[in-house]
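Researcher: Let's do a round of design. I'm pasting the structure tokens now; please hold your answer until I've finished.
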């Protein structure tokens, strides 16, 4: 019995040591992660903060362009990245914690572009698509054999290129697109959702770098499960959906 408690104590100490070294990275992507009055907030951010509180850990959240956040999480241990899409190309690259926000990805076009018609994904091959660097949509489309010539460093750049007809289509989360258009001051009626990317939709995740221990990952999984069970998660989600 004594040996068992010693082993448990050692494991707990290891987990807490790892938690103390924890880094958290994300991008600015409203309404999931964004600054408001100088404070980082959003659906995903509030869920992550609730999980941290449940775990009893405190750490600063680092906000970078997505490609840099992804690189940090890919190369270092004890890094938590959030608002990340889970696709098969990434499955073995991270330790997945769980879904922290709903996500429905679509292809968008300018409404005035009556020449663009997409019934199935294959129809999109003949159009120029603007995609964010290291985004799951880029990985997904490349894996499908698409030739992607336009890769941007920021979502705003993709939208502006669409507005100027420098690209024909951009993939974007439906809720995120509505928020981003509002922030940029564009007219929502100028855009049209033309194709639902079902394989990429369902939810955004929080995930640990692959070098992170399973013990720490499981601790966060359990904490996420608890805030979903006690209603905290739904309160956060509904707050943002109601102010859309």
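Researcher: That's everything. Go ahead.
Model: Designed sequence:
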């Amino acid at each position: 019995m004594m040996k068992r408690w010693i082993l448990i104590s050692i494991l707990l100490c290891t987990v807490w040591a790892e938690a103390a070294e924890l880094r958290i990275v994300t991008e600015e992507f409203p309404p999931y992660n964004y600054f408001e009055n100088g404070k980082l907030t959003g659906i995903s951010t509030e869920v992550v903060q609730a999980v941290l509180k449940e775990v009893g850990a405190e750490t600063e959240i680092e906000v970078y362009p997505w490609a840099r956040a992804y690189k940090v999480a890919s190369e270092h241990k004890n890094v938590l990245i959030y608002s990340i899409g889970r696709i098969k190309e990434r499955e073995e690259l991270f330790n997945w914690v769980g879904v922290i926000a709903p996500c429905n990805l679509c292809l968008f076009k300018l409404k005035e572009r009556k020449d663009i018609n997409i019934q199935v994904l294959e129809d999109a091959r003949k159009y120029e698509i603007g995609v964010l660097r290291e985004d799951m949509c880029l990985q997904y489309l490349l894996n499908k054999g698409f030739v992607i010539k336009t890769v941007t460093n920021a979502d705003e750049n993709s939208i502006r290129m669409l507005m100027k007809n420098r690209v024909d289509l951009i993939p974007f989360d439906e809720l995120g697109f509505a928020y981003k258009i509002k922030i940029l001051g564009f007219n929502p009626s100028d855009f049209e959702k033309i194709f639902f990317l079902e394989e990429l939709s369902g939810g955004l995740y929080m995930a640990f770098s692959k070098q992170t221990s399973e013990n720490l990952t499981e601790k966060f999984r359990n904490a996420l499960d608890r805030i979903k069970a006690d209603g905290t998660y739904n309160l956060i989600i509904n707050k943002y959906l109601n102010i859309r």
